[in-house]
């Protein structure tokens, strides 16, 4: 039968402290002035790279290596941390939704049939991120769903858009809005009353995460549900074009707006009897809105009016909380994660990051599961992030504090594994501010140093890696790798990349003879879990992706 017990590693000892450091958004790319990691002073990461050649390598962090549909899909934190923690590759939300739409299965399952009850007499609202980034959502999936729902009886449809500029180029929201408008016009020509009803920039409206700032969700609620916003327009394209003219405006932070009819009334507030679908497949930035839409008892902000709706998520965003109750596509079932195994084998675990990445080393790492496996053996520490600012203003973020807390956890002797996410490269990289991202990379490197110093003191082992690329490339490039110019200027890349990420192992506790194998050249993030289990003195379960290390005598 099944057992949580892991076999002892034939050669590697137990009870060595292992520090698992994940640099968020830290890929490997050629030296270049838009490679902020290269430009920044990063002596610690440089020394790992230039140290023992068989203690440093690259691993794949994008595309099929992390369960995404194609090799053109950049990596992201959800799929990256899922792979790191689970040690196996699961088909992820993006792919599961593609499959369900292609097979038509999405229209047969419970979730769609539940919202369909509203089609005859009420409105179907679709709320989500409007881009082709493929990280949280994809516009082509929304287009398919619009058509599929109208073919199955939806007569009145309202779309509530969130503009991106974070997983895609800033400014691209105009084109996406035009594409969406054309789709809605074609539905209207078939007699379906389909329109955009509201909108706003994803970082200012709706898509907060880990409860960093509920005001963000409230702004969305007011526009989407109540039909109230400071800006009113006749069309989404006009809205975005106009709001983008404000100085410093960008897609990520556009203010909330509603679309109004000729008499000035909002075209799509949510009312009793309506159906609502949040079309993002990724969980972290949808669970707060999902709570507001679903929970009867709710005290995070004043909802003013709580319509009785049929609500479904594109996916279920939290399996533990069963949030939401109804969903169109079943999420990947990520079971038997390395964290759960290790805890069952007595490994005492500490996990830490600041708010904006806290769920990454806990929830995502543990297979999209909230809370502890065993609170006696685990401690998760969240350092509050600055809220209400863009991180280029504070590019050091809480790296130092994460470093200090983790150092203290290591020196306390109370843990066998410490696991951290250092967010700077990613969070500042997403702002597109190249200078600030250089500062961010330096700060991340300093945090790594603090942790490695503590590992040194206690005779432990370190594993330093990253979840996907971001800060190592800040411009859009052609196939040859040259920056693409538009009106004589480079286009700043705020998104993640397709680059591989480094992984380094070392520390005084690393047994002599441990080195990276040469026979896993296409190794990816999913190979890290078995590697870490080995470093804790265990053999990984058989169905885990193979370890990256071997022990030579
Ligand atoms: C975000 O949600 O901030 C971006 O879309 C993706 O960033 P992450 O995958 O690094 O969290
Ligand atoms: Co990111």
From TrEMBL:
Alphabetical list of InterPro entries matching this protein: Alkaline_phosphatase_core_sf (IPR017850), BPG-indep_PGM_N (IPR011258), Metalloenzyme (IPR006124), PGAM_B_sf (IPR036646), Pgm_bpd_ind (IPR005995)
Q: What does the entry list as the binding residues for substrate?
A: 136, 166-167, 202, 209, 282-285, 357
Residues that, per the record, bind Mn(2+) 1? 426, 430, 496
Entry annotated with the keyword Chaperone: no
Q: Which residues form the Metalloenzyme domain?
A: 18-538
Cofactor annotation: Mn(2+)
Q: Mostly located where?
A: cytoplasm
Which Pfam families does this UniProt record tie to the protein? iPGM_N, Metalloenzyme
Kindly report, in one word, the top-level EC class recorded for this enzyme: isomerase
Which Gene Ontology cellular component terms are annotated?
Answer: cytoplasm
* Membrane-traversing stretches: none
Q: Does the keyword Manganese apply?
A: yes
Recorded metabolic or biological pathway in which this protein acts? Carbohydrate degradation; glycolysis; pyruvate from D-glyceraldehyde 3-phosphate: step 3/5
| Residue ranges that the Swiss-Prot or TrEMBL entry lists as coiled coil | none
Which residues are responsible for catalysis?
77
Instruction: Kindly state which reaction or reactions the protein catalyses.
Output: (2R)-2-phosphoglycerate = (2R)-3-phosphoglycerate
BPG-independent PGAM N-terminal domain location is 97-318
Task: Name a single GO biological process.
Answer: stomatal movement
Q: Where in the cell is it found?
A: Cytoplasm
Which residues hold Mn(2+) 2? 24, 77, 467-468
| Record-listed E.C. numbers | 5.4.2.12
Q: Which family does it belong to?
A: Belongs to the BPG-independent phosphoglycerate mutase family.
Q: How does it assemble?
A: Monomer.
What name does this protein carry? phosphoglycerate mutase (2,3-diphosphoglycerate-independent)
């Amino acid at each position: 039968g099944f057992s949580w017990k892991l076999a002892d590693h034939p050669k590697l000892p137990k009870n060595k402290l292992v520090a698992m450091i994940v640099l968020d958004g830290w890929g490997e790319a050629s030296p270049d002035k838009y490679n902020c990691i290269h430009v920044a002073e990063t002596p610690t990461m440089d020394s790992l790279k230039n140290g023992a050649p068989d203690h440093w390598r690259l691993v794949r962090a994008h595309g099929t290596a992390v369960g995404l549909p194609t090799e053109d899909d950049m990596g992201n934190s959800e799929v990256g941390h899922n792979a790191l923690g689970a040690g196996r590759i699961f088909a992820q939300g993006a792919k599961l939704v593609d499959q369900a739409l292609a097979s038509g299965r999405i229209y047969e399952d419970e979730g769609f049939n539940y919202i369909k009850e509203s089609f005859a007499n009420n409105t179907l609202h679709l709320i989500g991120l409007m881009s082709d980034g493929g990280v949280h959502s994809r516009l082509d999936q929304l287009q398919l769903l619009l058509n599929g729902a109208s073919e199955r009886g939806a007569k009145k449809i309202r779309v509530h858009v969130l503009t991106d500029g974070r997983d895609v180029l800033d400014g691209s929201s105009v084109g996406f809005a035009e594409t969406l408008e054309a789709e809605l016009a074609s539905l209207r020509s078939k007699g379906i009353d389909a329109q955009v009803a509201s909108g706003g920039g994803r970082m200012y409206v709706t898509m907060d995460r880990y409860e960093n700032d509920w005001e963000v969700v409230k702004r969305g609620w007011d526009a989407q549900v109540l039909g109230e916003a400071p800006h009113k327009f006749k069309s989404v394209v006009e809205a975005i074009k106009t709001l983008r003219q404000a100085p410093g405006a960008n897609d990520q932070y556009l203010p909330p707006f509603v679309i109004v009819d000729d008499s000035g009334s909002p075209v799509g507030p949510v009312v009793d009897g309506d159906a609502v679908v949040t079309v993002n497949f990724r969980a972290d930035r949808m669970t707060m809105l999902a709570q507001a839409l679903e929970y009867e008892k709710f005290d995070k902000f004043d909802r003013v009016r709580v319509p009785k709706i049929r609500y479904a998520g594109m996916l279920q965003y939290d399996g533990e909380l069963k949030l939401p109750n109804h969903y169109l596509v079943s999420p990947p079932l990520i079971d038997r994660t390395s964290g759960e195994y290790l805890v069952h084998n007595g490994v005492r675990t500490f996990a830490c990051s600041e708010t904006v990445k806290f769920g990454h080393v806990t929830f995502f790492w543990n297979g999209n599961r909230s809370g502890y496996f065993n609170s006696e053996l685990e401690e998760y520490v969240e350092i509050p992030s600055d809220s209400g600012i863009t991180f280029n203003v504070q590019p050091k973020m809480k790296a130092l504090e994460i470093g200090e807390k983790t150092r203290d956890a290591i020196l306390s002797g109370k843990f066998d594994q410490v696991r951290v996410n250092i967010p700077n490269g990613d969070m500042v990289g997403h702002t597109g501010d190249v200078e600030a991202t250089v500062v961010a990379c330096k700060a991340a490197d300093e945090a790594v140093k603090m942790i490695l110093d503590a590992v040194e003191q206690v005779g432990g082992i370190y594993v330093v890696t990253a979840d996907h690329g971001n800060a190592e490339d800040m411009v859009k490039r052609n196939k040859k790798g040259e920056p693409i110019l538009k009106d004589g200027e480079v286009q700043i890349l705020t998104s993640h990349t397709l680059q591989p990420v480094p992984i380094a192992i070392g520390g005084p506790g690393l047994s002599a003879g441990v080195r990276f194998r040469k026979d896993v050249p296409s190794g990816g993030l999913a190979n890290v879990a078995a590697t870490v289990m080995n470093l804790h003195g265990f053999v990984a379960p058989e169905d885990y992706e193979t370890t990256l290390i071997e022990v030579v005598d």
